[in-house]
Design a protein that fits this description.
single chain, alpha+beta, Hypothetical protein YwqG fold, two-stranded antiparallel ribbon, DUF1963 domain-containing protein, YwqG-like_sf, DUF1963
Length: about 260
Amino acid sequence: MSTTGIDLPTYKERFRREAAARGVPEARAEAFLAVMRPRVGLISTPNDGGVVFRYGGLPRMPDGVDWPGSASFLGALDCEAIPRAQLDLPYPESGELLFFWEGHDNVFEPWGEVIHVADPSTASPRQRPGGPGAYADPVDYFATPQVHLPWDTGFYDDVAFEGLDDVAKAVEATWEDPWCDFALGGFPNCTGGPEWDIPDGIGEWPAERGERPTYTQLRGEYRVLLLSDSDPLFNSRLNYVIRAQDLAAGRYDTVSMVADVND
């Protein structure tokens, strides 16, 4: 078994060669590459990296840590197993991040919460108070490196590349489909997030959205802690986002969850 996919430095070199061969100006190519982010796809096909995320099942929670309201438990991220060299996010060095969400029964106002359990050996499986058993049967997910744009995987047909046909063709010739059930890093994948929008210099910006974000905002503020391209049980896109400085400080109370439920 081996880890598949492509990391961001490798993709950049591949794209630069293809763009140069197509006559894309270097500055134009670099402006595009500056927008991309590394991400790690989580796939159910086993590889050498080991289990990184476990979807479903029951969370291991220490005594004294309350279950967040009426939320369901989505899954647990093993912080030690995260391939840090392939990401640009300061995840905790150890423990588990537990992801909860309220949305499959509350599609108009979904919300989520993240709890860091520093030492899972002191925790025990917990049922949701007053609710049914596990949200879903447990499924193990393994890591594969990817790259990501602030649009969905059909991006080269999108308004995001209006007027950038030379770049779009170079991308189409080099891209590997980054779709997966879950992912770490990259960009949010739904229109409700704080930085899903077209970055400055890429395509047209709708006037009704107000001032357009800058490259600095897109690269420096919110980051994706975890997303699902399609929650296997309810076909929902979930995005847990946090500012990088809050993640480094362990401020998981600042996590926002935005979603396209049952889309």
